[in-house]
């Protein structure tokens, strides 16, 4: 799923070109998914640029994208990420994990997984790459009622 119609269309084209049978949906996070669906891995590429920083950089125009939602992470860059982490519990299988990446120049490491009901399993950072990838497991206290 993606919030951007152009990204969904692009993903469909790439999958078809490569002969991959996949389904892509436009959705605001999980809103277009069926409530009973459970996934072993949920990967998220969140918008994490703080609103004012993105406006100052004119990101929507410079990136030639179809809306601020592609980069705008809210006041501190974590609004959408926190919403995703709160909503994702309901869509994880019993052995599920959440994987996402952010650039810590926009969102400091200590803000990324604070109070989200997940436990950090692994943090992946490579030299010369500005992004950090986080792998999270649900915390025992965040057990879901199915």
Quick overview:
With 146 residues, this protein is of the alpha+beta class. The protein is 26% helix and 23% strand.
Mean pLDDT comes to 86
Shape: globular
Q: Beta-strand level of the residues, as a percent range?
A: 15-25%
Number of helical stretches of at least 4 residues? 5
Helix content: 25-40%
Task: Enumerate the strands of the largest sheet in spatial order, edge to edge or round the barrel.
Answer: 1-2-4-3
CA-CA gap between termini: 22 Å
Number of strands: 4
Which structural category do the helix and sheet elements fall into? alpha+beta
Unreliable runs, pLDDT <50, ≥5 residues?
none
In N-to-C order, the SSE pattern is HEHHHEHEE
C-alpha Rg (nearest Å): 16 Å
Tell me about the largest β-sheet: 4 strands, mixed
Helix-strand layout with pairing:
Elements: H1 5-17, E1 39-44, H2 51-56, H3 59-63, H4 79-88, E2 92-103, H5 109-112, E3 118-125, E4 131-138
Parallel strand pairs: 1-2
Antiparallel strand pairs: 2-4, 3-4
